[in-house]
Design a protein that fits this description.
There is one protein chain. By secondary structure, the chain is mainly α. The protein has one domain. About 60% of the residues lie in helices and about 5% in strands. The protein has 9 helices and 6 strands, in the order E-E-H-H-H-H-H-E-E-H-H-H-E-E-H. The strands form 3 sheets. The protein has a two-stranded antiparallel ribbon with strand order 1-2.
């Protein structure tokens, strides 16, 4: 693929920045999707509006703060860099953490179920990643490692590199499709293991329970929060692998610690925490019969 930087559109006196446009579009699409799902659970639309607004501010501050933490010298020298978003520099994991924090505070104030809301917005997060990374792809701000694949981007230095942002966009859209289907057809259990919906063509046990959810794992992921935790685990695993395709040297490269990017370390920690949680829960269920 040719190297093209499509960073802005100028219409008269109006300048529309490509990356900012797709970030805004990602939040708008996520909001509409969450609003659509909330109606099916009889959640008032005004609560979803304020929830998404809280998530928006939390994601913005969190993504900017975690990016600057990689460069403590610059941040300590000028604290105003925290809100200078026009200077660039955001970290997706920081945005997710900030969104969870601010969104969680609003959910508590609105007296909603945190884990049910987390399940509801999990596909919306994936959709936002898919759309937002299109903006990254169009401005070519992620330097990939060299590749001989036909879809590599031929950079000005004459080296064909992996289109990392495009990969991450496809991952986002793929997870959105998967978790939308899981939301629509998943087994919905409310701590009582009452099965309301069963995905078609899913193998069943003699008791009528899908074999994938048989036993301890089924009880764990039958609880509220299952989709959100599964999403975090899935994205952590895929992001950890994808970051190996990011260049380790160059102006656009991400800083590394002991050979891994900060996003890889965060992904690894989150993945281990979720696996540990599952192991502990399974042990508890087994012990309690």
């Amino acid at each position: 693929m040719p190297y093209i930087v499509f960073d802005r559109v100028v219409v008269g006196q109006i300048t529309l920045y490509t990356w900012g446009f797709f970030v805004g579009l990602a939040f708008a699409a996520g909001y509409l999707f969450a609003l659509y799902r909330a109606k099916k659970k009889n959640i008032p639309p005004e609560k979803i509006f304020w929830l998404v607004l809280a998530i928006f501010f939390g994601a913005g501050l969190g993504s900017r703060a975690t990016f600057l933490l990689q460069f403590p010298g610059e941040w300590l020298a000028d604290v105003s860099l925290l809100w200078q978003f026009n200077q660039g520099g955001l970290m997706l994991w920081g945005g997710i953490f900030g969104a969870v924090l601010f969104g969680g505070l609003y959910v508590r104030k609105a007296r909603l179920s945190f884990w049910e809301i987390a399940d509801l917005i999990a596909p919306a997060i994936a959709l936002g990643i898919g759309i937002g990374r299109i903006g990254c792809f169009l401005i070519n701000d992620h330097l990939g490692t060299p590749t001989n694949l036909p879809w590599g981007i031929l950079w000005p230095d004459g080296i064909a590199r992996h289109p990392v942002a495009l990969y991450e966009s496809l991952v986002g859209f793929g997870l959105f499709i998967i978790f939308s289907l899981l939301w629509k057809r998943r087994i919905r259990e409310d701590f009582g293991n009452e099965i309301q919906k069963i995905p078609p063509n899913l193998p069943l046990t003699k008791g009528g329970t899908p074999s994938f959810f048989k036993g301890g794992l089924g009880r764990i992921f039958g609880m509220p929060g299952q989709l959100f935790l599964l999403f975090l685990a899935s994205y952590s695993f895929l992001r950890f692998l994808l970051d190996f395709l990011r260049a380790s040297q160059g102006v656009l490269s991400d800083p590394r610690w002991w050979g891994l990017t900060s996003s890889q370390w965060i992904s690894l920690i989150i993945f281990i925490i979720i696996l540990t949680f599952i192991k502990i829960k399974r042990a508890t269920i087994t012990t309690n019969g």
